[in-house]
Amino acid sequence: MDIKIKNSININGFSGPSQSYYETKERFKAILETKLNIPTVEVPSSSGDLGANDFMIDLLFQQSRSLGEISNYAAPINNPYADKLAENGLIASSNVREKSKVSASYIDSKLQGTALEGLGSAFKKAEEEHGVNALFLLGLAIHESNYGTSRIAKDKNNLFGFQAYDNSPYSSAKGFKSFDESIDTVAKYLSENYLQPDGKYFNGYSISAIGKKYATDPNWANGIENRIKKLIGM
């Protein structure tokens, strides 16, 4: 049996939700279907009424807005960078399991004249083999090694400060034979330990979620995201 709620209350000075509200709600409905695999069914309703399914969507939408959860899946309507983020395979969810839509040559074009020049194929290979977004890996490498110029990067081919513990960062940092090996090792480590539900440090798929377990710096996630924005010209 359909449940209908009559929308007949008038409030002075209130003309109803804005168009952006409805647009965002429609995106939320799409998220239920495509991201969360929750089927939605069209319920006929007369003007001014909410069908049963519409009512439930509205409740879920309002709850997710109040908790800030919708930002994990859909970029705000007024976010001028949303399309560019989506085009480059790192959508507003910051799900680092999603593949980037940039090529190795594109990455190389961003690294010309730096110590990381020519590593585009290594980042893309790590993405393909370990399922970690290449732009995230590159942003992490740039952030941790300052484009490969840090002492640990120069002396140990370690682009990520991997195993560089706070009390003895240089001596504890792992050494690699090449930058390529560093990229592959860290991508594999992140995939197995941070991006698997049964991983030792799993806390979610977003950069922010990873940072809470991966780094002691509270601004780590923002730093990585800013690096990525620069890489895609934002």
TrEMBL record:
Residues 108-232 form the Mannosyl-glycoprotein endo-beta-N-acetylglucosamidase-like domain. It holds the Pfam family Glucosaminidase. InterPro entries: Glycosyl_Hydrolase_73, Lysozyme-like_dom_sf, MGlyc_endo_b_GlcNAc-like_dom. Keywords: Hydrolase. The keyword Hydrolase applies. It comes from the Bacteria. The keyword Hydrolase applies. GO terms for molecular function: amidase activity. PANTHER family: PEPTIDOGLYCAN HYDROLASE FLGJ. This is Mannosyl-glycoprotein endo-beta-N-acetylglucosaminidase.
